[in-house]
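Dear colleagues,

For the upcoming journal club I promised to circulate an example of a predicted protein-ligand complex. I picked one with flavin-adenine dinucleotide because it came up in last month's discussion. The inputs are reproduced below in full, followed by the predicted structure.
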Amino acid sequence: MSEKVHCLIIGSGPAGYTAAIYAARAGMKPVLYQGIQPGGQLTITTEVENYPGYPEGIQGPEMMVDFENQAKKMGTDIRYGLATKVDFTGPVHKVQVDEKDWIEADTVIISTGASAKWLNIESEQRLNGYGVSACAVCDGFFFRGKEVAIVGAGDTACEEAVYLSKLASNVHMIVRKGEDGMRASKVMQDRVKNTPNITIYWDSETDEVLGDTKVEAVRIKNIKTGALQQIPVSAFFVAIGHKPNSDIFKEFIDMDEAGYIKTIPGSSKTNVPGVFAAGDVQDKIYRQAVTAAGSGCMAALDAERYLTEQGLA
Ligand SMILES: Cc1cc2nc3c(=O)[nH]c(=O)nc-3n(C[C@H](O)[C@H](O)[C@H](O)COP(=O)(O)OP(=O)(O)OC[C@H]3O[C@@H](n4cnc5c(N)ncnc54)[C@H](O)[C@@H]3O)c2cc1C
């Protein structure tokens, strides 16, 4: 016989742990599966300065241990394991863990996050957290008054370049395509082009991020001519997109073309009654720990109401 729970939370980032705190305090006895990255994306960063409640800032991994401890203290059953398959056809939702056991749940909260896409060059991985970042809003502040580089050509890259231009002395934007091949909307392209301290390098790719212990420069290569150019910078931002961790839900849950889960505006409800989504897996706009935590709270409250309405509480 498979295990049956009131509330199953998939994912252990700020969204999942916040949902767990609220669900546990509401008496829903939540079970939370952590996935392969217990603590989520913040465990791969260093200083977090913008999460309220930590006036001196805090290391990302340490903050996520605080989240975990709080969820545990409230009574969440936290387990190491990966959701590998789901079946959301019936009123009781089925989730398979580690390709073995099936768990039945009255409510499921999906908080599996999104992963930043990387260029996958060695120096980018080695200097990740030491000047290399996939989040301008998170880390731009640390490079106030400095020269920074950003790679990407979509709307998000343009937005982040403009955001950085207000903090950094100069923003060097590396774009693979030529001027007529940029993916971003015309409005965003114009905004970038009209910002005096953004320099765009067309037809260029990143050859190497340079620096022993922190970013000191980026070497770019002109794709057309093969010419190499070294630009001294203190930070290197990668803005080439994110991939929501939503593949296993595809058959049942409505998503946009990029795989972000669609929720009913103003709620965490998905198209399947009793299944809710929170955090970066359903948010391609804000992607911050505090917004993920906020939507985790919404998901737990929505799940609690669902259980009451269905007479399952
Ligand atoms: C380098 C970096 C620095 C950042 N700095 C900041 C910052 O300073 N301030 C800020 O506010 N935000 C920052 N962010 C953004 C922030 O980390 C995210 O917005 C936030 O973590 C999203 O939370 P989440 O709970 O939605 O998902 P995530 O934190 O991505 O967590 C997803 C969780 O789901 C689990 N999971 C995935 N698939 C499965 C599965 N199949 N089964 C079980 N579990 C699964 C993973 O193991 C993980 O625990 C940063 C991000 C990065 C990458």
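Two points we might discuss: The pocket of flavin-adenine dinucleotide is lined by residues 10-16, 33-38, 40-42, 44-45, 48, 50-51, 82-83, 111-113, 116, 133-135, 138, 245, 248, 279-280, 287-290, 292 (CB under 6 Å). The mean pLDDT is 95.

See you all on Thursday,
B. R.
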